[in-house]
Amino acid sequence: MSVAPWSLGVDMGGTFVDAVALHEDGRSVAIKHPRAGRRLAEPVVEALDRLCAEAGIAPEEVGRVVHGSTVITNLLLERDEPPVALLLTRGFGDVPVLARQDRRALYEPVVAPAVPEAALFPQPLRFEIGGRIDAEGIEVEPLDLTALDAAADAIAAASVQAVAVCLLFAHCNPSHEQQVGELLRARLPHLHVSLSHEVDPAPREFERGLTTALDAYAKPLAAGYLRALAEALSARRLPAAMLMHSEGTVRPWQELAARPIGLAMSGPCAALRGVAACLDEGSRRGAVLTLDVGGTSADIGLLHGGEPAFAESLECGGLGIRQRCVDIASIAVGGGSVLQVLAGAALRIGPRSQGAWPGPAAYGQGGTLATLSDALCVLGRLPDRLAGGLTLDCRAAEAALARDVAVPLGLPLAEAAEAVVQAAAAHMAEALKTHAFQRGLDPADALLVAVGGGGAQHAAEVAALAGMAAVRVLPQAGVMAALGMVRGPEEVAATPLRTTTDAWAGIAPEGHGPAALFAPMTTVWVPAGWRWRIEGDGSLLLAVSS
Questions:
Q1: What is the mean pLDDT of the chain?
Q2: Degrees (nearest 5) of the Cα angle 272, 278, 283?
Q3: pTM of the predicted model, to two decimals?
Q4: Which residues is 543 bridged to in the sheet?
Q5: Beta-carbon neighbour count of residue 458 at 10 Å?
């Protein structure tokens, strides 16, 4: 046995921090820890402190710490951070807004803009400068330093935190962008600068510009929290954190603090790795779809032959990010998603989320807006106390749901709550079907695996809407992303995984729905017409009753 036999994986979601300690002999310990307050690094460190204390792990016994999070994913879904400045080649200032002229919604009479420029980079924050590199990488016009100075002055006056620089053909010859970066960093040392030839060195101006702008948009938040996390780990004599990149590899934290767009889908990617590592041999041979539901988003992944599929770009909240990534689709529907009734009695779920703070009304932390979790609470589908230690206030949930949904829709409270849950399931099912069909897969031919704190709450209903007859819930479902950070498919042949607690404590070996099953790390909903059975491998199988 090595001197430092423990690996720690910690995943920060929209509502909870999940932490797993994995020993080299296969033992594992897991916890869920609530994200209290608005600071990002503190709950991660608190979760690690609690995990090490409960497992009796000394700092010198820890060989590595791997961290991933949905922070950047949620930021791109919600888009509530301050906008960034863009610095572009003269004459190309509207490229980020014009986007690609494809029509995503064929039957909508009014098509929304492809890029929400007001939230990301409004027109007053887009600056153009002279200078031109051609498609061969040859300078045909020198950089206009006077215009650059003026743009730097305007950026300083705008008091933005970050700027994205995307000059024409910079991927062929980055010299102009390098000059711009040097001047901006010298003049405005507090400014976060993203250069397109560093973030996405490939042709097509719109894609390169948008990816660079989103990197800049995420950089102030990511840099601050990753630096604070590094300092806290060092103070505890724990190893510096490695971070889960969107393509399923781990990188030094400094690299992803400088290129935070690589953290998009970090947590969901780790969850998919964990599923690949935990499935039995028979399940790994077929197609597997995963449903990972957290506090802010629902993420759909795909495994072929036990291996994650990859894509050269990812979509997050309708925004295309050109970056190699485990092939995952994400929609802004999660436990903390805010509920609204629009004109014409249309029910909207998300994209705004109450997140960890103040959280759903049921959390009793000052949140007053109705959320999906509040609807689940009203229906009795959540326990009185969640795995992370939060005690739910169902009266607060009822009051919020009545005010925001039941009264505007003219429905009894229970019917309104059921309408919310069914609408959420419909959103998830459509996303799952679209993801599968676009990849040549009929969902009916795949196994659905539920992960995340809320995946098993919705999986059976989603499966029914997608034409699937069975769902598997793995013992580690509630902390799958944290587990996937320290155990991936490449380690399946190593020491078998062992858990230190009974994942399904207090649950009958089999039964029929409707029933809410409250396990230590997750909650499972079994609808009417479905049954459950605990399998020999420790997983929970949900299937349509014959």
A1: 90
A2: 90
A3: 0.87
A4: 470, 531
A5: 27
